[in-house]
Design brief:
Number of domains: 2
Distance between the termini: 40 Å
Largest sheet: none
Low-confidence stretches: 179-183
Order of helices and strands: HHHHHHH
Oligomer: single chain
Number of strands: 0
Shape: rod-shaped
Helix content: over 70%
Number of helices: 7
Structural class: mainly alpha
Length: about 180
């Protein structure tokens, strides 16, 4: 039920309740039967309770929306902090990988392919991305493995990624304060 529909129903119930109360007051002065007065009082009470219920529900819904918006904003801020931290770490990792690729004396083209291999792209995807044939990429990747002294992609990946996955007990619990403040 939309908010507009709830407001319409609450308005109608309020009118029914007010009309029933007015009729109850006039009937009480004229000496009407008790069961008629009781029926009108019941109609007024049910109508006004319906108004109360809809208005209460509307306020609760608005409060939930405010809380969800606040939670969403908090998560956006946490995401910004995490992305900033991750970016800094990834920059350092990329720099370290590049230094090792220099030690292996890879050409710029081979370095680019090595990074794409580490990202998990297939030889076909790398060829499409670099606008070269899959056969050329295969030859360059074989050259990379030979210069590094590896037999394939898994050894290349393991060389760089093996120590990144620390056991759970070795993970740091504290984020340095300068990195945890939102910008």
């Amino acid at each position: 039920m939309t908010n507009q529909e709830k407001n319409l129903i609450a308005t109608i119930l309020l009118l029914v309740g007010l009309v029933a109360l007015i009729d109850l007051a006039t009937d009480a002065k004229s000496g009407t039967y008790w069961w008629h007065l009781f029926t009108e009082a019941l109609i007024a009470a049910i109508s006004l309770f319906g108004v109360f219920w809809l208005v209460k529900d509307n306020f609760q819904l608005k409060r939930k929306i405010q809380l969800e918006e606040q939670l969403s904003e908090d998560l956006r801020q946490q995401s910004k902090i995490w992305k900033k931290q991750a970016h800094n770490y990834l920059q350092g990792l990329s720099h370290s990988i590049n230094q090792q690729l220099n030690v292996w004396q890879l050409t710029n083209s081979e370095k680019e392919i090595a990074f794409l291999l580490l990202k998990g792209l297939s030889l076909r995807e790398i060829g499409q991305l670099r606008e070269t044939s899959e056969k050329t990429v295969r030859a360059q990747s074989t050259s990379i493995y030979a210069k590094a002294g590896f037999s394939g992609r898994s050894q290349l990946s393991a060389f760089f990624l093996e120590d990144l996955l620390l056991p759970q007990q070795d993970l740091p619990d504290i984020v340095p304060p300068e990195e945890s403040s939102p910008n």
